[in-house]
DNA sequence: CTATTTCATTGAACCGATTCAGTTGTTATA
DNA sequence: TATAACAACTGAATCGGTTCAATGAAATAG
């Protein structure tokens, strides 16, 4: 069935040790043997068994990536970054989807331990992930993704969500808006609460008060449904900031259906700058996050931790979000 | 560092064989020993090393899934289906992104061989994937995903794209449209060419001719840009069928920007029924594919192939697409 | 011409879980 | 009482690469 290193050794008339050396330290093998063995490897179609290799080595060249929602374009971009960076360094990646459930998260962590992954990149569902500490005892590196650690025992790569919230509000204020609504999801989602803090900071700095409207789920249907509530606020807002683009697009549709003109009557700004934002009915102003780079940075960080060992210093990398201005925002009339 | 089965055996004062039996055939172990060993396993935090287990067994409980584009909502849904079904049967899944490149595809196949996956689910980039045959010799099951096989040596799970094209055109014809434009991508993409065949079939059956407009990339920007070309066709179409929803949303934006009313002046229909379709500026009529079920079915199929061995009969499962009618289509005026 | 170093190669031990022939102890059958 | 049948458990062999002390051969030094 499968060709083993021993088969190659027999066919090439050398010892198993030599074949192993051809694979791992070709420089110490004589040119003539090297060539003969390499030819045999090709002829037999030999592919080394990663299990056996890493069983002996005690560690693998595999990473685990656990995200709360692969369907979210932000995380697919992150995943692409992780994959690209990892495969450049010869690592394979298990992509797991926790669906925001701590249960599924724990289950996947267990699977990844069984698979002997070298490191785990994770966006934990709850704020204080105690169970991750156990991984370090097992010699599995852990890097937090899109979350910041207080503990200094691990690396993290995140985007400054507080600043993102500030940027959005500061921009609206700079345009002259004073009646602003903040449409967000459940406070339990760290991104939501951080962006909310940014909103509060900027509002305080500008000396204005901002109405908060909460949707139970961050999808476009809920965004559309919440428009009625927005339009019946005691003071009609001249600008709306949504916690993500999907919700913002729902709100946009709801407003347009009600005959509200964007941005003339109400300005609208989203978060994430998803690929579809420029092609929305009204091209959407949004806060962009460097999702791909986030993935690349986290993969490189964890791989360096795996390979440098004790020489590795834990780092907390924090990216800055960026305002992308399109047609959905303007001065209030 | 890591706790091995031998450590558990020593601590619990039994042989390694007994500990193994506790894990794999608990019924043949006496109740008292069973309990003692299980307690020890918990105390030591022992997690079996999948490498060693499968090195011995000769096969793993891991699958590989290779898709052309994880960012495409269709494939993320498929992936969710695969993951859910696989993890229900105790299998882990490597998710790989080939980016439509045969090169990357080959590279990932190699990685998956090294990881000793039991089976590979793949949407191959080219129509005739010769290199996949080699996997069968290695004892790795292969199932085609969203592609059909002519060869009877493997399973496949697909959606009838030809029928999908027919359904869309038949529906438009039934509304009374006779001037229809078909906006599609490169002919090299199998989905595009199959849907195109369906369009041609239905057009022939209805005795009408349909203008084909091709975009080089299937994204919404290209969709928006192609609107000029559509509006300058010798005969202005009363309906447009797009090869996927993303392109359709671009076309929708382009039309609305030009002041064209949808569906009064032009009806619009997409393909895939992505989550955002109902929330588009004009809710989009689309052809839905059972993406999640596609994933579940393919995972179950390949796992049964892995476990039944020779008893397994290769199957070609083909799902039917479904028309979802929303506000973007109506009778021509 | 021997002594020492260098270079290429060998082959057995090892990683950790599984498997199975074999051992021990207990209970049912003739 | 002898014997068969069975249950519970043992421990060495095994899977396929990797590693490293040991070996042999050739090159260089004394």
Structural notes for this entry:
The structure is a homodimer of 333-residue chains. The first copy, chain A, has helices at residues 5-12, 16-24, 31-44, 50-57, 73-88, 102-114, 133-137, 161-175, 190-206, 220-225, 227-231, 245-257, 291-308; strands at residues 62-67, 92-97, 119-122, 141-145, 155-159, 180-184, 210-214, 239-242, 267-272, 285-288, 316-319, 322-324. Chain A is α/β, with parallel strands linked by helices and 333 residues long. In chain A, strands 2-1-3-4-5-11 form a six-stranded parallel beta sheet, with helices on both faces. The first copy, chain A, has a six-stranded mixed beta sheet with strand order 7-6-8-9-10-12, with helices on both faces. In chain A, helix 7 (133-137) links the parallel strand 3 and strand 4 (141-145). In chain A, helix 1 (5-12) crosses helix 2 (16-24) and helix 1 crosses helix 3. Chain A is elongated, with a radius of gyration of 26 Å. The relative contact order of chain A is 0.12. Chains A and B meet through helix 4, helix 5, strand 2, helix 6 and helix 10 of A and helix 4, helix 5, strand 2, helix 6 and helix 10 of B. Chain A binds a DNA duplex (30 and 30 nucleotides) through helix 2 and helix 4.
Give me some keywords for this one.
homodimer; 12 strands; alpha/beta; DNA-binding; 333 residues; six-stranded parallel beta sheet; six-stranded mixed beta sheet; 44% helix
| Neighbour order of strands in the largest sheet of chain A | 2-1-3-4-5-11
Structural class of chain A: alpha/beta
**Main beta-sheet annotation of chain A:** 6 strands, parallel
- Alpha-carbon Rg of chain A, integer: 26 Å
Strand content of the residues of chain A, in percent?
A: 15-25%
Shape of chain A: elongated
**Averaged pLDDT of chain A, please?**
92
Helix content of chain A: 40-55%
- The oligomeric status of these chains comes to homodimer
Total count of strands of chain A: 12
Number of helices of chain A: 13
Helix-strand pattern of chain A, N to C? HHHHEHEHEHEEHEHEHHEHEEHEE
Largest interface: A-B, 55 and 55 residues
Uncertain regions of chain A: pLDDT < 50 for 5+ in a row?
none
End-to-end separation of chain A in angstroms reads: 75 Å
């Amino acid at each position: 069935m499968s060709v083993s290193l021993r088969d190659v050794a027999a066919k090439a008339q050398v010892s198993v040790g030599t074949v192993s050396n051809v694979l791992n330290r070709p420089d110490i093998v004589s040119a003539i043997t090297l060539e003969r063995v390499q030819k045999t490897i090709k002829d037999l179609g030999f592919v080394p068994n990663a299990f056996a290799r890493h069983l002996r080595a005690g560690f693998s060249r595999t990473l685990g990536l656990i995200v709360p929602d692969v369907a979210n374009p932000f995380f697919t971009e992150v995943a692409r970054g992780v994959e690209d960076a990892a495969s450049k360094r010869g690592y394979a990646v298990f992509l797991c989807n926790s669906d925001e459930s701590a249960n599924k998260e724990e289950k996947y962590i267990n699977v990844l331990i069984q698979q002997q992954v070298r490191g785990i990149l994770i966006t934990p569902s709850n704020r204080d992930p105690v169970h991750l500490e156990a991984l370090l005892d097992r010699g599995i590196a852990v890097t937090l993704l899109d979350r910041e650690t207080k503990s200094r025992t691990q690396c993290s790569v995140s985007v400054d969500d507080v600043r993102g919230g500030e940027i959005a509000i500061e921009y609206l204020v700079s345009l002259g808006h004073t009646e602003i609504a903040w449409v967000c999801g459940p406070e339990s989602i760290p991104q939501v609460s951080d962006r909310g803090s940014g909103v509060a900071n900027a509002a305080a700095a500008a000396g204005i008060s901002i109405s908060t409207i909460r949707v139970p789920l961050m999808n476009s249907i809920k965004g559309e449904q919440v428009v009625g509530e927005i339009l019946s606020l005691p003071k009609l807002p001249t600008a709306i900031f949504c916690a993500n683009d999907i919700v913002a697009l729902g709100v946009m549709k709801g407003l347009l259906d009600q005959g509200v003109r964007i941005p003339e009557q109400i300005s609208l700004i989203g978060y994430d700058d998803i690929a579809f934002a420029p092609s929305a009915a009204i091209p959407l102003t949004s806060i962009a996050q460097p999702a791909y780079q986030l993935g690349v940075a986290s993969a490189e960080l964890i791989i360096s931790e795996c390979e440098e060992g004790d020489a590795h210093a834990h780092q907390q990398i924090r990216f800055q979000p960026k305002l992308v201005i399109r047609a959905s925002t303007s001065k209030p009339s």
